[in-house]
Amino acid sequence: MCEQVLGALGHCSNHWCSRADRHFSVVWSLSPLTTPLRWAIGRFKYRAEGLWAGVFARLLVGFLDDHMPWFDGYDLLVPVPAYTGPGARRRWDHMGAIAGAMTPLAGSRWPVSAGAIVKVAETPAFAHLPLAQRRSCAEARLRHALVVPAGPAVRGARILVLDDVFTEGSTLREVARAMLRAGALEVAGLAIARQPWTRGPP
Ligand SMILES: [Zn+2]
To answer: What is the pTM of this model?
Structure first.
């Protein structure tokens, strides 16, 4: 899950990697979260510099194409949903913009469905929360803000969820949980960047 080298006993120090209730199967990332990537994602996400959508879309689809045997079995690409309604922290759905730019590039190989899961209320920002609080905040708030609209999109599908930065998995866990409950067969993650795991278990 976190791409660390396993210890002598074959175990990973990231507690998520051995948890049966994480709901998502596996997470891929294009790169560790480097300083230039953090800058580019920040310009895009927080300053709404929309031109980055095409850059990130091309990188993500290029990664899918380059690693075809891994991604052959996924039926649907779904961006992590954003809330952009009244009271939203940002009125800008940055992952939705990337998904939109991926649609013509991914073609019929990987259909993109931005509406397969939606977020109907604002939730506290995770970025500055301590690790231990992220999971409880996700369970208490994010879980109730995620809705999978009725319909055939998710049922029976193997889904790859797109996100900007994968940190410790609390967001993906809730997205995966909601889509599995709606009938998805598998939910995995694909992030532009991964925060390298530097902390031990809580
Ligand atoms: Zn691990």
So the answer is: 0.92
